[in-house]
Amino acid sequence: MSPLVGKLTAATLQPSEPELAVEPRSPQTVARPELGREDEPSLDVLYRQYAPWLGAMLRKRFGQGFDAEADDVVQETYVRIAPYQDKAPIRRPQALLMRVASNLARDLLRRRVVRGRHVQEAANGPDPVGSATEDPLQNLVVKEMILSIPAAYRDVFVLSRFGGLTYEEIATRCDLSIKSVEWRLSKAIAHCTKRIED
Question: pTM here?
């Protein structure tokens, strides 16, 4: 062993200063102010603060065709987050509201496409009444079947099948929503199909 290594080893093993007794410290906890229930904004405050912004963002993101449904989606968004309000404070309310509202809007648009597809298939499907023929007996049976449709459904059915009007035109003429026109037409077709099968 070299004399230099021996001196270093001996010097490092012998402390030059007496050791101080140090007690182990317990980890210090930093006092952080906790948000109390009174500091947290209520659902009412969140609604008043962010509802107009959320509606505008939905209209911007999903287009002006989404205008009628935007207010309903905003309402449903607040209904969906209400149960979570008590469990934990909402740190980023705008992000949460936009995420929930976007998911609800996508679901609504998806359902609208599926419903439109089903209505279109029903409209393009076989006509249970059939077209008017020259046979007077068959014409009489068709008239009786149409007259047996409940009045609320009959108007929509006649305007669609014999008047050739679109759902929008029927809705305007009968002062109904397009969804109501679709629903009434499907009920009328189901009634006619049942009468044919009986």
Answer: 0.44
